[in-house]
Amino acid sequence: MLSRIFPRLSPRVSALPTPVKTMSQRSHIFTPMDWMFYYFPNYSRDKVALMARQIKIHFAIGFALVFFVYHPPYKGADYENFHKSPLYWYKYNKLERSGQLQENLRIKRDWFYDEDPNAS
Q1: What integer pLDDT is reported at residue 120 of this predicted model?
Q2: Transmembrane region positions (predicted)?
Q3: How confident is the model at residue 56, as a pLDDT?
Q4: d(CA 37, CA 28)
Q5: Are 28 and 21 in contact (CB under 8 A)?
Q6: For a surface tag, which of 8, 54, 77, 95 has the fewest beta carbons within 10 Å of its beta carbon?
Q7: Sequence spans of domains, the chain
């Protein structure tokens, strides 16, 4: 009765096959655990040590992915790789036409500390 009034509230039947539905219950993220128990019985004899080892391995893999694959050093770390918007080009050309751009780009100071007036 309720499904006739509110069709969105009626439970939907999943179209996924049974092996796909139960995949998260049967396997681990990278390696199915039944393969670990079958092919490496000495490695997986102690279940707590296996879990701790798996956590360390997955942490190392995740750390390496984040720092070496997803963000390689010095790739895109400068402003040359960014998209320059039409507003940026409008302001850039306006400054270039007025001569202010060259004044802003000119090196105005080539020393870091002021000269010491007490130095002889």
Answers
A1: 60
A2: 55-72
A3: 94
A4: 12
A5: no
A6: 8
A7: 22-73, 76-105
